[in-house]
Amino acid sequence: KAGVTQTPRYLIKTRGQQVTLSCSPISGHRSVSWYQQTPGQGLQFLFEYFSETQRNKGNFPGRFSGRQFSNSRSEMNVSTLELGDSALYLCASSLAGGTGGYGYTFGSGTRLTVV
Amino acid sequence: GDSVTQMEGPVTLSEEAFLTINCTYTATGYPSLFWYVQYPGEGLQLLLKATKADDKGSNKGFEATYRKETTSFHLEKGSVQVSDSAVYFCALSEGAGNNRKLIWGLGTSLGVNP
């Protein structure tokens, strides 16, 4: 079966712009979680969506937002980009939530560079 | 809050050497513990997991045992291969019900030389 697909793979944006990243989960998976990965901070949880509802949220500013569609595909949006937003953004899908022993299936990520 | 601490890398070994990557955690409850691996240019993959104390997770020759008394989940492999070169992440699940999320270590880079 197809894995988790993230698009685009690479993105370069200018400070102040906004960006939208897309994630298509594994067919049948209803939970999509987003993480930011940087060398200094490691992996940090952004938010989780389940059945089109945000179920959990990390400690990121309101410039970071997301949504999930009825087909479980998810998008995250970052507005008013800052240099510090440069990172690898990872999406993970799971049947009903990534913890409790089941784990996630991750996409390959979108590498965002803000200049 | 809960946290995960991994040994710093990079770790460089020769093929067939023994591998240990240390992971300790701080948690108020009884989390599940995971090891994920990230190969160059790829997303993270679940390597193994353990859901309760004394459980041993194993996969592809890697093992880790959930030690509640030492709050540890060290990753081991008896004989590494060049193909094991990757970044390894230890993680725990935090919260309950719909508020669960993963807390991650910073990752340990492993390089294996032929």
Largest sheet report of chain A: 7 strands, mixed
H/E element string of chain A? EEEEEEEEEEE
How many β-strand runs of chain A? Answer: 11
Oligomerization category of the chains in this entry: heterodimer
What does the largest sheet of chain B look like?
6 strands, mixed
What structural category do the secondary elements of chain B indicate? Answer: mainly beta
How would you characterize the overall build of this protein?
The complex is a heterodimer of chains A (115) and B (114). Chain A has 115 residues and is mainly β. In chain A, 0% of the residues lie in helices and 52% in strands. Chain A is built from no helices and 11 strands. In chain A, the strands form 2 sheets. In chain A, strands 2, 4, 5, 6, 9, 10 and 11 form a 7-stranded mixed β-sheet that branches. Chain A starts with a strand and ends with a strand. Chain B has 114 residues and is an all-beta fold. Chain B has no helices and 12 strands. In chain B, the strands form 3 sheets. In chain B, strands 2, 5, 6, 10, 11 and 12 form a 6-stranded mixed β-sheet that branches. In chain B, strands 3-9-8-7 form a 4-stranded antiparallel β-sheet, with no helix packed on it. Classes of the chains: A mainly beta (115), B mainly beta (114). At the A-B interface, strand 5 and strand 10 of A face strand 6, strand 10 and strand 11 of B.
Task: Offer a quick outline of the entry.
Helix content of chain A is 0%, strand content 52%.
Question: What layout of secondary structure does this protein have?
Answer:
The complex is a heterodimer of chains A (115) and B (114).
Chain A: E1 5-7, E2 10-13, E3 19-24, E4 31-38, E5 42-50, E6 53-57, E7 64-68, E8 74-78, E9 87-94, E10 105-106, E11 110-114
Parallel strand pairs in A: 2-11
Antiparallel strand pairs in A: 1-3, 3-8, 4-5, 4-9, 5-6, 7-8, 9-10, 9-11
Chain B: E1 3-6, E2 11-14, E3 19-21, E4 23-26, E5 33-38, E6 44-50, E7 56-59, E8 62-65, E9 75-77, E10 86-94, E11 101-104, E12 108-113
Parallel strand pairs in B: 2-12
Antiparallel strand pairs in B: 1-4, 3-9, 5-6, 5-10, 7-8, 8-9, 10-11, 10-12
